[in-house]
Amino acid sequence: MEPDLNKLKNNWTNFVDDNILDENTRPIIQRSWKHCQKIKIDINSGKGESIDAQQLQQVLAENQELIKIAQPIMQNLYEIVLSSHFVLVLTDKNGVLLDTIGDEVVSMRASELRFLKGTVWTTEAVGSNAIGIALDEDTAVHVVGAEHYCVPHHSWTCSATTIHNVKGDIIGVLNMSGESHKLHSHTLGIVVAAAYSIENELALSHTYRSMSASLDSTEDGILVTDENFNLQWMNVGAQKILQLNMDEFNELGFKKIFKKMDLASEIWDFEETTRYYTDVTAHTGSRKIQCSANVSRILENDKTQGYSIGIREIKHLHSAVNRVSGNVATYTFDDIITQNPQMRMIIKTAEKMARFKKCILIEGESGTGKEMFAHAIHRASSFSQGPFIVVNCACLPRDLVESELFGYCKGAFTGALSEGKPGKFELAEGGTIFLDEIGEMPLEVQAKLLRVVETCTVSRIGSQSERKLNIRILAATNRNLEQEVKNKSFREDLYFRLNVIYLHIPPLRVRGDDIVWAASHFLDRLNREYPEHTKTLSKEFLAGLKLHPWPGNVRELQNHIERTFYLCPEPIISSDYLPTPPPKYGQESKALPPIISATMDDLVKANLEKILTETQGCVEASAEMMGLSRASLYRKIKKYHINIKDYRYSSQM
User: Fold this and answer.
1) Mind listing the pLDDT tens digit for each residue in 67-105?
2) How far apart are CA 104 and CA 110, in angstroms?
3) For 308, phi and psi rounded to 5 degrees?
4) Contact partners, residue 528, CB within 8 Å, separation at least 6
């Protein structure tokens, strides 16, 4: 039922003249009139006041998303009511008009009331009106004729409703105003529907921004294309990986960038939505970027409407693999235990050479610490943040050496993984590869290894292209590679390529002081680990250690100290726990002193006689030096048929 305009006029007159509110006046209008009366609004005023130009520019900037979303919806709505001579108005949360759309007739009438962009239309500014009441009550409202508080508005009918953001806060008002006699019952419903559409678009925009922010926070690249592979959207990660923006990408074209990803010709199973590619090359001008990719179809009515493509640089994938696999260096030069001047010079040289990218060849017997040096060199180098890949060449099956080192493409050979596999050199990208026991490398593989070392590129088995590498190469062997070259079992050219910087780690037996130093260090570590079983090393035991040849070097010494610690029940480890010389060692190492071929009993007896001579046969002093009780010392004297009087007598001569 349309309101009676004359009745509304009478109700207004009764209120402003006699302060009488008719019971037929709607409560929402009553509350607004009372507020206007309280703040002393002039009933003959009602023209909007403009804010200054600078303020207006700031307001427009703050509400640009609302304006951008609302304008096309307002334009569609205006076309519907075009012949009705209505004006559409959008305001901000403070009632400032942001935009107006109307025909010439109604716009001229509106301008008389200063119903224009940049004017304020709150209740406090112009009295009761639909915009002001909607903001005051946060509701949808229509105000007809004399329901307006100010007289200049009585010829108008206005329908308005608030617009909210995703949090529910008021951010603006949508209003439709026209001549009061043209009021239609559906006007308010149309305005509410339009405001609802604006709110939905704002919510979608917020969701889009949230998703974009989330997708931009990942290092992975994400591309969205249509069914013809025209790029529709790409995240920041994809732009960084490819170093292209959307326009540059589309100028090159998907098929030129990803030449080997022929998605259009691939047949997808009905339920298949995603495919994975572990080895993809992106061609962007002169650059080639190695990536892994996953491709998902965007379906609509079971038809492909586009693709979502995730890409990740191989180096990041390899980095994750290396972290999980524990391909990291753990030792530094501080962990290498030595007091030997020669070893200290070698460490100093290694520290200096670690700064350079050139190959380093480390030679030395098994157990001398070649791998520790490799760890330390990596940690001290510019590659320290990258992976540390250890390859034991002696452990690689002969028929798998190439595939392990250099990798292979899909279908390279029977039994190969369908997606191919990167080799150790690729996994070492940005870091160090340590080729341990390089002397065991088969001759037929050495030629390909030579090319990798020379060019810093690697070609997978079955591939026609090469991949550029940024790695540091270290190699170690317990063989004499120079002699191996003479024996024709190691390539001379590869030897010279690896032997740019040479380190030779001397065996433990020629570093006498290091034997005692290292043994004490290993024992201290065990004492810290098992404080309830603390032990010390007797002087006799330490002296005996120095006489042992240690064919297994530091590794053998460490194992022996640990074994002795666990087996010895006494707090002082005596010479009873000295190691026995390895069988036939004397024949294998003729350069060693003749004493090495003696039995352990001979060594212990010689040590005991030396101590008795030094103490002039004093049992108490000798026992203290050897870390034994007097009873234990007497048992050894008896065991080795030593006449204690001979030592006391000789001292008196």
Assistant:
1) 999 999 999 888 876 566 788 999 999 999 999 988 766
2) 10
3) -110, 120
4) none
Residues 6+ apart with CB under 8 A from 290: 279, 280, 281, 313, 314, 315, 467
Give pLDDT, residue 320: 59
The pair of structure tokens assigned to 642 is 């030593």
CA–CA distances in Å: residue 514 to residues 259, 373, 628: 60, 16, 24
> 520-576: per-residue pLDDT in tens?
999 999 999 999 989 999 999 999 998 899 999 999 999 999 999 998 888 999 998
What are the residues whose beta carbons fall under 8 Å from the beta carbon of 375, sequence distance 6 or more?
329, 330, 331, 332, 388
* Residue whose entry in the numeric block shows the structure tokens 């000789």: 650
Rounded-to-10 torsion of CA 214, 218, 223, 224: -20
The residues facing 536 across adjacent strands are 572
Q: Please write the tens of the pLDDT for every residue from 217-237.
A: 888 899 999 988 999 999 999
DSSP code at position 471: -
Q: What per-residue confidence (pLDDT) applies to 80?
A: 77
Under DSSP, the state recorded for 531 is: G
Strands of the sheet containing 87-92, edge to edge, are 97-102, 87-92, 170-179, 156-164, 141-144
Query: 365's torsion region: left (phi>0), alpha (psi -120 to 50) or beta?
Result: beta
| d(C-alpha 495, C-alpha 589), whole Å | 26
pLDDT score, position 505: 94
Positive or negative torsion for Cα 449, 454, 456, 458: negative
* Nearest in space to 607 (alpha carbons), one of 631, 562, 642, 582: 642
